[in-house]
Amino acid sequence: MANVFAFVESRGGDVRKAGLEAVSAARQIADQTGGGEVHALLAGAPGIAAQASRLAEVGADVVYVVEHAGLAQYDAESLAATAAERIRAGGYRAAVFSATAQGKDLSPRVAAKLRAPLAPDATAIAVEGDAIVVRHPMYTGKVIGALAITASPALLSVRLGAVPAQPNAKAGRVETIQPAADPGASKVRVVELREGNKGKIDLGEAAVIVAGGRGLKAPENFKLVEELADSFGNAAVGATRAVTDEGWRPHSDQIGQTGRVVSPELYVAVGISGAIQHLAGMRTSKTIVAINKDKEAPIFKVADYGIVGDVFEIVPALTQAVRAA
Ligand code: FAD
């Protein structure tokens, strides 16, 4: 039986979906190692403690809360010091982070402080004997590597959507702790956060993503993609790099190797060829639907459902059908 640590991401006083998923992934490891406890670390500005009950709902036995005005924004140095101190004190078998932009910055810092192994960007986790086996895409997703970590603590970061947050109510006992390093004293500070997608559903949080490529021909035709996204009610709009390079959509919409990595329940690719660099950002989506007029387009190799046809005919018909459903 082993206890497992989870680092919980929050923004603007709210726990992010990635944070809930980190707790669920930790729960999965704890259950597979004989039912140990999950200890979550939740840090933010004063008031963040109110979010602790959400972590209990997905399997946290203990929530360590750090409240500090200096943690209203991400503070790498202070959070890395605090997480490392907690992991050291807790003697955990594993420590789970999110493979988000923030988690990819934080987890190596913590691993370096602890001189512990880190398996990044997990898409599947299993406990096999003494080892925690982490599967993760390598070489832009051409192969899936399996890392078996026998050392403790095993640090890992989990790709968004890889371990969906599951209801699993636990006590969620709250303990307030102090930051191990003063947030105000960090050498690096976030001075401003500009939200590229203000008011829109974040790509990482969306259950459904409708993404458009160069097959849409012109920026104004993205309204077809937006209308299809609207018809689902809760969908976000994404794009290929060809599109963001053209300036048709903001860079924050880009999905792929040099954009966002997403794993929604449903990914609809509209006029996208399926270049390897695009697939690197979306191939782990649960269900992929592709619309392309070229039946040889590589996107069809990863698609669960493929529609060979003209986006200008198919997408409006699909939008109507989804609205009517
Ligand atoms: P295209 O490849 O031009 O494909 C357009 C598709 O639309 C074609 O398959 C065509 O058959 C179809 N089409 C055309 N008209 C219609 C129609 N009327 N109806 C239906 N289908 C139609 N790309 C990314 O997306 N994300 C990344 O993060 C990324 N990072 C990269 C990093 C590096 C280092 C490099 C070298 C490249 C990267 N790229 C990335 C670019 C990538 O290689 C491709 O160029 C890009 O993904 C292609 O975008 P696309 O599918 O929109 O365009």
Distance between the termini: 47 Å
Helix share bin: 25-40%
Structural class: alpha/beta
Q: Which consecutive residue ranges, at least 5 long each, have pLDDT under 50?
A: none
Biggest sheet: strands, sense, closure? 7 strands, parallel
**Total helical elements:** 9
| Beta strand count | 17
Order of helices and strands, N to C?
A: EEEHEHEHEHEEEEEEEHEHEHEHEH
Average pLDDT figure: 95
- Output the strand order for the largest sheet: 7-11-6-1-4-5-12
The 3D shape can be described as globular
What does the model show?
A 7-stranded parallel β-sheet has the order 7-11-6-1-4-5-12, sandwiched between helices. Strands 14-13-15-16-17 form a 5-stranded parallel β-sheet. The chain has a 3-stranded antiparallel β-sheet with strand order 8-9-10, covered by helices on one side. It contains 9 helices and 17 strands. It has 325 residues and is α/β, with parallel strands linked by helices. The chain has helices spanning 17-32, 52-57, 76-90, 101-114, 222-232, 241-246, 276-279, 299-302, 311-324; strands at residues 4-8, 10-11, 14-15, 38-44, 62-67, 94-98, 118-122, 124-128, 131-138, 143-149, 154-158, 173-176, 208-212, 235-239, 266-270, 287-292, 305-308. The mean pLDDT is 95. Its cofactor is FAD. The electron transfer flavoprotein serves as a specific electron acceptor for other dehydrogenases. It transfers the electrons to the main respiratory chain via ETF-ubiquinone oxidoreductase (ETF dehydrogenase). It comes from Roseisolibacter agri.
